[in-house]
Structure formats: structure tokens, C-alpha cells
Amino acid sequence: MLADQTIVLLGGSSGIGLAVARAAVAAGAKVHIGSSNADRVAAACETLGAQASGAAIDLTEEASIAEFFAAAPTFDHLVHSAGEWKRRRNIAGADFDLADAQAAYQIRFWSILLAVKHGLPKLAPGGSITLTSGTLAHRPSKGSAMSTAMMGGVEHLARGLAVDLAPIRVNVVTPGLIATDAWAKLPAEAIDAMIAGQPLPRPGVPAEVAEAYLYFMRAGYTTGQVSIVDGGGLYR
After folding, report:
1. Maximum CA pair distance of the chain?
2. Is the entire prediction scored with pTM above 0.85?
3. Is residue 89 part of a domain?
4. Domain count for the chain
């Protein structure tokens, strides 16, 4: 069902986004990826082959987002998997840093609305938008109040957009611990603690999560939904 369709992926040069791009190309789709690093975009396109194109995009700047979509082809599906992995002072209370919190929200939350604003004119009427959250939205950990609110906000935003943008479908994939480069710096004991007791006691791999994104693109009667891909981690 994705053959000859075009997918725009924000955050598509690495990790989960690149895995989605690979799976989409394997299904016969064309992909147009956006990432902050032009060299990574070029490397990803070379890996993906002739079905791929892309450009650099700064998701903290509306002008860059507008420029990216102005130059992008018309498309059938939008995937937002861009993350921001800078370690921030993410603690509510006496040490709360408003500017730092606002910077974290810029890529993970506000850029979604800007991508919708500038991408909508090129999105097919029967197309879809798939966003990315995280399991902290459902199972907060100590010191994660801001991330919990932000990820929960993405899920609730998707439900509202599903109503506002219909018949365009809007859904969310919520990954647990996935073995991407972003997690590679964690010590083994930290990984072990994070997966201890979950029904599938291992990290997931990006290709497994990519299947959830492809499902939402193909599932023409599914909107406003959240797919949690976490090895059962919420049931520890």
C-alpha cells in the first residue's frame, strides 16, 4: 500500500527515523528526510538509494522549517521522529530552569505544530501524520516531570489534531528503550536496570519500532491512536 507514495521524515537520518525510512523504501515508497546535519542527511540518502532525497532542517527555527517544506515534494505521509538529546536540567522545583525547558519543548513539541503549518499544503488529503512520544508519558521516573509532560503532550496533541485535520489521520508511536546511538553511551548496568522485569527483557531495535510507523501509514481507518512499542515495559 506504500508503493509509489512519498514520505517526509523529520529526524530521518539516524535511529528510529532512519529505520522507518529503510522500511518505507523496502515497501516501495519514496522518502524525503530532514535532519539538522547536512552530512548525515547525505549519508542517509546514499544508504537508502535512488528512492531517497533530503535536506537539512533546523527545527528550532520556523524559517528553516518553512524553507524545508517549500522545497520538498508533495507527499502522502509525514513522520516526526526528531529528538533532542542534549542533557538538560529537567527537574521541577527549586532548580527549575524555564529557558532550558522551553528549549527542550521546541524540537519535541512546538516543531510538530510548525511542521503541520508548513507541511499541510503539500500533504495529500487522505494522508497521515505520525508523531513520536515516549513511555515516560505513561510511567514517570524520578526527575522526569518535564519529559513526562512533554511526551504526554505529544500524545494529547495528536488526538486533537486527529479531529482538527480530519480526514488526514494523526497517530503516535511511543517507543520504550530502543537500541539506537542515543542510548549507546549508557553503561550496561543502566540498560539492565531499565529492562529488568519487563516481559521481553531486552532493548528493542529500530526496525521493530519502524513497523508501528508503517502500520499507521497503511491503516486508513485508524486515527488519534497511540502504539506503545516497549517490550511490555509498562507492565513490569
Report:
1. 53
2. yes
3. yes
4. 1
